[in-house]
Amino acid sequence: MYVHVNAAVSVDGKLSSRRREQVEISGADDFDRVDRIRAAADAVLVGVGTVLADDPHLTLDEEDRRVQRLRDGRPGNPARVVADSRARTPTDARILDDEATTYLLVNDAADPDRLDALRDAGAEIVSAGGDGSDGDDTGSEDGENAHAGRVDLRAAFDALEREGIERVMVEGGGEVIFSLFEAGLVDELTVYVGSLVIGGRGAPTLADGEGFVDDFPELDLTDVERLDDGVQLSYET
Ligand SMILES: NC(=O)c1ccc[n+]([C@@H]2O[C@H](COP(=O)([O-])OP(=O)(O)OC[C@H]3O[C@@H](n4cnc5c(N)ncnc54)[C@H](OP(=O)(O)O)[C@@H]3O)[C@@H](O)[C@H]2O)c1
Ligand SMILES: Nc1nc(=O)c(N)c(NC[C@H](O)[C@H](O)[C@H](O)COP(=O)(O)O)[nH]1
User: Fold this and answer.
1) How far apart are CA 63 and CA 17, in angstroms?
2) What superkingdom does the record give (predicted)?
3) What is the pLDDT of residues 89-140, one digit of tens each?
4) Which of 2, 111, 189, 209 sits at a 20 to 30 Å CA gap from 13?
């Protein structure tokens, strides 16, 4: 699986405000670049935190790109994938409409009734990861067991590859991006730095989770480009 992480941050590295409401950091050219990356991908992945905060749609804006994908024998829109251990995605979420296939990555802790309701709402359920009974399953609160009970992303990607998905674009948020770096699953990172300060010790950043204390993943800077009123940085791992 080729994993391309893309996100937009403020100069101080924030993905959005401490209220976790969507902040438009990108300008028109950067959003067009995002659309191009989506069009090249087989799937677009976010965490359930982003679904709950932004209710994103994650489809292509540019009709020409959709038509070109169809000409190439690919679905018009890339599939949508949500890392959602306990199936918290609302059944009326925009990503569950029929404009693209949507996979929910869950683990054994997910309530079967919720899974049935989400299947009825159009989701494809992919189970990957234990129920956290071997550790705390509250996620990020308890640093030591922060990942117990969350989706096993490597196992989930193996399952998605069996569905024919070979290239995934990850749009965030900070919890999922950290887990991908921690699991050594990131191949490419592009970051748009908008010329604004968001601030806030509780605001989400590019990579949250517990954070590294050593063995920091090092990246190769491959390109720097002015875009809109900000800068776009490109890295390879
Ligand atoms: N500026 C940008 O480019 C951009 C992009 C995306 C999002 N955002 C902003 O970022 C914020 C959301 O970010 P976020 O960090 O709170 O949420 P997130 O990363 O989108 O989702 C985190 C949630 O995903 C679930 N998850 C399942 N498996 C996981 C795993 N292996 N590792 C990590 N998480 C896993 C966890 O919930 P469960 O335990 O319930 O599964 C976790 O709480 C919003 O404010 C949004 O507006 C900004
Ligand atoms: N590249 C980028 N620049 C931004 O300024 C910003 N706020 C996001 N945020 C990413 C997040 O994942 C959003 O929820 C989706 O970008 C919404 O996607 P739709 O337009 O609904 O398809 N992404």
Assistant:
1) 31
2) Archaea
3) 999 999 999 999 999 999 988 999 999 999 999 999 999 976 655 554 444 4
4) 2
Non-local CB neighbours of 24 within 8 Å, separated by 6+ positions: none
User: What separation in Å is there between the alpha carbon of 47 and the centre of ligand 1?
Assistant: 4
Tell me the backbone φ, ψ of residue 59, rounded to 5 degrees: -115, 175
Pocket test for ligand 2, best of 58, 99, 175 (most atoms within 8 A of CB): 58
Domain map (residue ranges) of the chain: 2-236
Q: How far is the CA of 172 from the centre of ligand 1 (A)?
A: 6
Tell me, what amino acid is at 208? Answer: D
Identify whether the C-beta of residue 209 lies closer than 8 Å to the C-beta of residue 183: no
Nearest to 168 by CA among 234, 230, 79: 79
